[in-house]
UniProtKB/TrEMBL annotation:
<dbReference type="InterPro" id="IPR056333">
    <property type="entry name" value="BBS7_pf_dom"/>
</dbReference>
<feature type="domain" description="BBS7 GAE">
    <location>
        <begin position="342"/>
        <end position="450"/>
    </location>
</feature>
<dbReference type="GO" id="GO:0043005">
    <property type="term" value="C:neuron projection"/>
</dbReference>
<protein>
    <recommendedName>
        <fullName>Bardet-Biedl syndrome 7</fullName>
    </recommendedName>
</protein>
<dbReference type="GO" id="GO:0016020">
    <property type="term" value="C:membrane"/>
</dbReference>
<feature type="domain" description="BBS7 platform">
    <location>
        <begin position="458"/>
        <end position="560"/>
    </location>
</feature>
<dbReference type="Pfam" id="PF23349">
    <property type="entry name" value="BBS7_hp"/>
</dbReference>
<dbReference type="Pfam" id="PF23360">
    <property type="entry name" value="BBS7_GAE"/>
</dbReference>
<feature type="coiled-coil region">
    <location>
        <begin position="307"/>
        <end position="334"/>
    </location>
</feature>
<dbReference type="GO" id="GO:1905515">
    <property type="term" value="P:non-motile cilium assembly"/>
</dbReference>
<dbReference type="GO" id="GO:0008104">
    <property type="term" value="P:intracellular protein localization"/>
</dbReference>
<dbReference type="InterPro" id="IPR016575">
    <property type="entry name" value="Bardet-Biedl_syndrome_7_prot"/>
</dbReference>
<dbReference type="InterPro" id="IPR056334">
    <property type="entry name" value="BBS7_GAE_dom"/>
</dbReference>
<dbReference type="GO" id="GO:0005930">
    <property type="term" value="C:axoneme"/>
</dbReference>
<keyword id="KW-0175">Coiled coil</keyword>
<feature type="domain" description="BBS7 beta-propeller">
    <location>
        <begin position="2"/>
        <end position="285"/>
    </location>
</feature>
<dbReference type="GO" id="GO:0034464">
    <property type="term" value="C:BBSome"/>
</dbReference>
């Protein structure tokens, strides 16, 4: 097995009698960003390639350095793929193709590149590289040109050939996304076709790595998935080639790589995993307990020897820790000692989930976390996370001083990863700060900042329904395309920092909360925004005007309000509001129904509807608790819609809000639409 780390060390090891035996190990150097195996086309991949900065190095499995190649790319190499004598390298935005170390093709991506792969040239004769890009697309290239784009349901993080060879015709590619989805797409010559997709209904972590290996020994390659919340999953395929979940193993750290193979014991398949903190572990099919007696477990001599070896290693480590601790205490008491702040890296992720319109904030360290203090200058809700074992306590805040939240998470011993769920309110923007303190001496803390944007619940998409009724906002003025791009980036998430090439830029978004849509089209001196939600247009108008004023840029603003968009948006809100009202009503009835059940000793006299509420009582309570303030949030959106509708007409309708809330308390869609139309 070959493994590379952030200290620049490449190590190859084998396992004999349960012990790892090093084959070779390189000296520390610059951080290694990627490790890939290569070899002749159609042959065994047994040559090891690693990237550090802009450089690629190649090693044989015995440790001989046969290649050192400086790509001269201006970006560090973050992803790489090797196919025969072809080398595909990607930085953050740049793609380069080298053949026999000669620059052959080049492409500049419109958004960040997360991974690269090439269809097998043994079956697909033309070289077809595929880039996994942050803007939810796979970009399929031919030479230095874009052949076409494949939209996928989330930002793709990793790519893998289906069945390790791309399937029968070599054109099938697996992808894993940062919001936890896995899918299979067929890369045709002219257009793609989506074959299947695994949704993330259980809201597991994002997918970091994929592999194909027959771990279930049924003669068909299985799919192995590694996630950033520590889950390792195995899927096999049914008769219609759809994936079926078979096994799950949970680790306490994010899984950075998974590979199936035989490593520890001949004849027994394993899944070898590496974790963010630097652990390498094997999940084996070998039965670990040989025989079970009436009072004791009889283990093999190999296992006994392994346990003895581990105990010896543990004792040596404890002795080393004691020695270092004593040395530190002596140094700390010295009058000339200088306290050095220990440095540590935080592996963090702040991702919007489409399923529940919330943000997941995950913080992971290579050492145990002591506590995390969360502070926000913008109103947010913290949602419950089942996997979170930390104890949370809230401190009193003064919103008038710009402090809306102060929460402390105290972690249990050996917790290296903490996951939080946050829901924001569109139109209110600011910064969340996380103060992360690990269990190290001397005590030190690192501050991480995360921006809550004005339209924080919007997500990039590549489809736009022209049939909907749209409101439009047009801005003209003395601004450059780059300035407008920076203002739009300030308003909306999931946009590249660099201004995309071209004379004009177009982006499409969808609201994860309401399913309304937004189109942004801008170039030098002019920008147009269209949305079926007038509140989205109102937020954009206020924020963009404010940003332009800061830069002393004068804007000419024209807008067109489509009256049909109001009932259309209310119809989109209707099913969500009706469901939440019904859920709240059911939860209110639970205690009364349980009391009746106790007194009457039977539920036969109750209607089927009430009996169903009693039957689902716990599930209803969990769902209601999981979505606090959901109803208030929907009321707030309808109120904003009402105020914004008349704001564009130059009327202040805040005085009519109490009457609107009365209508909502006795909710009926038709009555609500009439109230919007009749208010003057």
């Amino acid at each position: 097995a070959a493994i590379a780390d952030h200290k620049g060390v490449l190590e190859v090891f084998s396992v004999k009698k349960g012990d790892a035996q090093p084959v070779f190990k390189t000296s520390p150097g610059p951080k290694i960003n990627r490790l890939e195996l290569g070899g002749p086309v159609g042959g065994v991949r047994e040559r090891i390639f690693v990237t550090s900065g802009p450089e690629v190095k190649g090693y044989t499995k015995k440790g001989k350095n046969f290649l050192t190649f400086d790509t001269n790319m201006s970006e560090n190499l973050l992803s790489m793929y090797v196919e025969g004598s072809d080398l595909f390298c990607c930085g953050q935005f740049m793609y380069n193709h080298y053949r026999d170390c000669k620059d052959t093709n080049y492409f500049l991506s419109g958004d960040q590149v997360n991974d690269v792969i090439c269809l097998p040239t043994q079956t697909v004769k033309s070289i077809t590289p595929i880039l996994a890009c942050q803007d939810r697309v796979l970009r399929v290239l031919t030479e230095s040109e874009l052949l076409y784009e494949v939209e996928v349901p989330g930002p793709p993080v990793t790519l893998c050939l289906f069945a390790s060879n791309g399937g029968d015709d070599g054109t099938e590619v697996l992808f894993g996304t940062s919001d936890g989805r896995v899918g299979l797409v067929q890369i045709g010559r002219d257009c793609p076709s989506h074959l299947w997709e695994l949704t993330n209904e259980k809201r597991n972590g994002g997918v970091l790595c994929l592999d194909n290996y027959d771990i279930t020994a049924d003669g068909v390659l299985d799919l192995i998935v590694g996630r950033d919340d520590g889950l390792v999953e195995v899927y096999s395929y049914d008769d219609s080639d759809e994936p079926i979940h078979r096994h799950t193993h949970t680790c306490s750290e994010s899984i950075t790589s998974v590979q199936g193979g035989i490593l520890g014991t001949a004849g027994y398949d394993e899944i070898v995993c590496s974790t963010y903190a630097g652990w390498v572990l094997g999940l084996t099919t070998e039965q670990q307990t040989k025989a079970l007696g009436p009072t004791e477990v009889i283990t093999s001599p190999v296992a006994v020897q392994k346990i003895t070896g581990l105990k010896t290693d543990l004792e040596q480590l404890q002795q080393k820790v004691m020695s270092e601790r004593e040395k530190y205490q002596q140094t700390a008491q010295s009058t000339t000692a200088i306290s050095a702040v220990p440095s540590f890296h935080i592996n963090d992720k702040f991702v919007l989930n489409r399923e529940d319109a919330s943000y997941t904030l995950s913080l992971e360290l290579q050492m145990p976390i002591d506590n995390v203090l969360l502070q926000s200058d913008v109103p947010i809700d913290l949602l419950d996370v089942e996997k979170n074992s930390a104890v949370v306590s809230y401190s009193a805040c003064l919103p008038e001083e710009g402090n809306f939240l102060l929460a402390t998470y105290r972690c249990q011993a050996n917790t290296t990863r903490l996951e939080l769920k946050i829901r924001s309110i569109e139109g209110q923007y600011g910064t969340i700060q996380a103060y992360v303190t690990p269990r190290v001496q001397p005590k030190t803390c690192k501050v991480m900042q995360y921006q809550i944007k004005p339209l924080s619940l919007h997500q990039r998409t590549h489809v736009f329904d022209e049939q909907r009724p749209h409101n439009s906002l047009k801005l003209t003025g003395q601004f450059s395309q780059g300035e407008m791009h920076s203002w739009v980036c300030f308003c909306l998430p999931e946009l590249p920092e660099k201004t995309p090439p071209g004379d004009s830029v177009q982006f499409h978004f969808v609201s994860t909360f309401l399913d309304t849509q937004l189109e942004c089209l801008y170039s030098k001196g002019t920008a147009t925004f269209r949305s079926d939600n007038i509140s989205t247009i109102s937020i954009l108008k206020d924020v963009l005007t404010k940003e332009a004023t800061k830069k002393k840029v004068r804007l000419d603003i024209t807008y067109d309000v489509n009256e049909d968009s109001i009932p259309y948006t209310l119809n989109l809100i209707h099913p969500k509001l009706e469901y939440q009202l019904l859920l709240a009503k059911k939860v209110q009835l639970i205690d009364a129904l349980k009391e009746l059940q106790v007194h009457e000793n039977s539920t036969e006299f109750l209607s089927p509807e009430y009996r169903q509420i009693l039957q689902d009582a716990e599930q209803l309570k969990v769902e209601y608790k999981r979505q606090p303030c959901h109803l208030e949030r929907l009321y707030g959106m309808i109120t904003d819609l009402f105020i914004d509708k008349f704001k564009f007409k130059g009327q202040n309708m805040k005085g009519r809000v109490p009457a609107l809330l009365e209508v909502l308390d006795n909710y009926n869609l038709q009555t609500l639409v009439q109230f919007f139309e009749q208010s003057i």
